[in-house]
Specification:
Elements (H helix, E strand, L loop, with lengths): L2 H16 L3 H28 L2 H17 L3 H16 L3 H24 L4
Helix pairs in contact: 1-2, 1-5, 2-3, 2-5, 3-4, 4-5
């Protein structure tokens, strides 16, 4: 199955699950992707600085944004980062989950590069 067909199926399924028209869901999806892209850049800098307060705030927002548009591949690692940041103990594990989040986001961006949400 081509990547854009996979993306199209995900968009249709998520729209149906949320009770939205495909057009409405795609608008929300685009906004979520843009917000996630911006938040990921800030989160990466906060992780590099070891700033658990900002890591917690940004990862909480990311988790919510991604969960609201039914993107568990992003919401789950963001939630793990958030839980770790609350404990302010293990920046190494935070980095590991960030790499997972980043890889999933890059995969999603690759799909949107050839899909119908451009």
């Amino acid at each position: 199955m081509p990547e854009n067909a996979s993306l199209d199926n995900m968009l249709v399924d998520n729209a149906q699950e949320m009770g939205l028209t495909l057009t409405s869901y795609v608008k929300l999806f685009r906004m979520a992707v843009a917000e996630t892209r911006a938040d990921m850049a800030v989160l990466e800098k906060s992780i590099e600085a070891g700033d658990f307060v900002h890591i917690q705030a940004i990862s909480h927002r990311l988790k919510g944004t991604c969960a609201n548009v039914h993107l568990p591949m992003l919401a789950v690692p963001a939630g793990e980062i958030n839980a770790l940041a609350k404990k302010a103990e293990d920046i190494g594990q935070v980095r590991d989950f960030f790499l997972q989040l980043k890889k999933s986001f890059e995969t999603l961006q690759g799909m949107t590069g050839t899909g119908s949400v451009q």
